[in-house]
Fold this protein.
Amino acid sequence: MWWWFLWSFILVILIIIGRFLVSPPSQNINSSDLKLEWAYKTEGHILASPIIDGNTIYVGSYDGKLYALNLDGSLRWNYTGGQIFSDVTVGTNAIYFGSNNGYFYALDGNGKLIWKFKTDDSINSRALLLEDTLYFGNNNGNFYALDTDGKVRWEYKTGHAIRSNPVIGPNGYIYFSNTAGNIYALTKGGNLVWKYSTNSPIDGGLSVSESNIYFGCENGIFYALDGRGNLVWDISIGGNITGKPLVVGDVIYVVSDQSGFTPSGYIFAIKNDHILWSYKTEGFPANLSYNDGTLYFGTGSGYLCAVNESGVVWQNKIAPFVNGAPTIRNGTLYIGSLNGYLYAFQIRK
């Protein structure tokens, strides 16, 4: 787990830079590729991705607040709970999210608390909402199923931190990973169907297709399992595989960090067990978004990048550190940064 301590040290340094040494955004981050529409300042660094529902943007901050903004960047409301690392989940009648204080919250559309549920450790996992049940994990290795009234339906203990977002497969099983290197398949009733062990920590997420489950490990190996937990293929791409794989058709896009004196990383496009192409980044790459044939992502060196199979489309320095996956809607890209700003950029064609 040496890379986790290295990453934590780097993150602390970047927090200091982002909070105290970086000036507010200005027009100088505009370019021929991006136009800054607005920037909203929170009082803590933003590591989560903005989630848009209707005309409202939801994003959590390390200042302990969940923010609801209008599409023009004006504040609708905020709610103070605890430091927020994960993305929110939007339901029919509530907004759900976990916090580093161990609480899981449900708010109404006006930002009023409906209920909160106390777990025994911080929550970095985004909840999966299926019908009237919420599924998520915490850093003590417990996986919870709550009803939408905040009552526990069941709890499954793994013994190691769960930082991945649970996903549902086509067979109806719920998949998630923990930092011990295990992948779990549970029924909706909380029964273990199978467990796959990699013997290498998994700190990123996992994704599913119609037939496979995809994920990577600290040892640089990327895996594909079938729905019964059998290995379909694996491939060594090196580095520490972080973030959640992005599945687009039959191609999987994967992020890998390369530690060193000058941190860097790679974006890989993989089909079956072959690398189609790769792109080297300056700074650790963050989670990916895909729109109209182009991948968008931020980096630990503060760049917002757009790449495709032909190489870099553009890259712009916007902040000290950009972590969450961008959200793109109607030609506008929304992304948060370690300096506490949520940005909205118009993507110029």
